[in-house]
Amino acid sequence: MRDTNLVYTSNKTISAGTYSGILDDGGQRAHGVFVEFVLTGLVGGSPQTGSLLRARLEYSDSATFASGIEKGAEVDITSTFTRLAILSQSKRRYSRVQYSTFGSSPCFTGIYAHIVSGPQRDDVPGANTV
């Protein structure tokens, strides 16, 4: 079971631009954390191959994101059973995911987004050090 304080999106269906929930992560400091995006359901649209879901991290010191929005890393999701992680780095207190859809009547089911780890990643030595 995952800590709900680390979850942006859980089993969501997305067919138009929208936002995830807002996390109060206190700013992830210089090293950051990894955010994983998972698509477990179906990709729909006409044609299905033209559908794209873009997930972009956003940060703010405002709990409602009323001002001072900082754009972060983004990832494109185009196929079923996709699992991707990106590094999230910001000194701002709050974070969320902005979802944008592209294509003809796109629909993505089973979207998950959550924090999976701290700054340590052993896949490329020294890649995530300051």
Helix content: under 10%
**Overall pLDDT confidence:** 83
Classify the secondary structure makeup into a structural class.
mainly beta
Strand content: over 45%
Q: Can you tell me the CATH class?
A: Mainly Beta
What order do the helices and strands follow? EEEEEEEEEE
Global Rg: 15 Å
What does the largest sheet look like? 5 strands, antiparallel
> How many helical stretches?
0
CATH architecture: Sandwich
**Euclidean distance between termini CA atoms:** 32 Å
Characterize the structure shown.
The chain is mostly beta strands and 130 residues long. The protein has one domain (4-117): Sandwich (Jelly Rolls). It is 0% helix and 55% strand. The protein has strands at residues 7-14, 18-19, 23-24, 29-39, 43-44, 52-60, 70-77, 82-90, 94-102, 107-117. The strands form 2 sheets. Strands 1, 4, 5, 8 and 10 form a 5-stranded antiparallel β-sheet that branches. Strands 2, 3, 6, 7 and 9 form a 5-stranded antiparallel β-sheet that branches. It is globular and about 40 Å long. It starts with 6 loop residues before the first strand and ends in a 13-residue tail after the last strand.
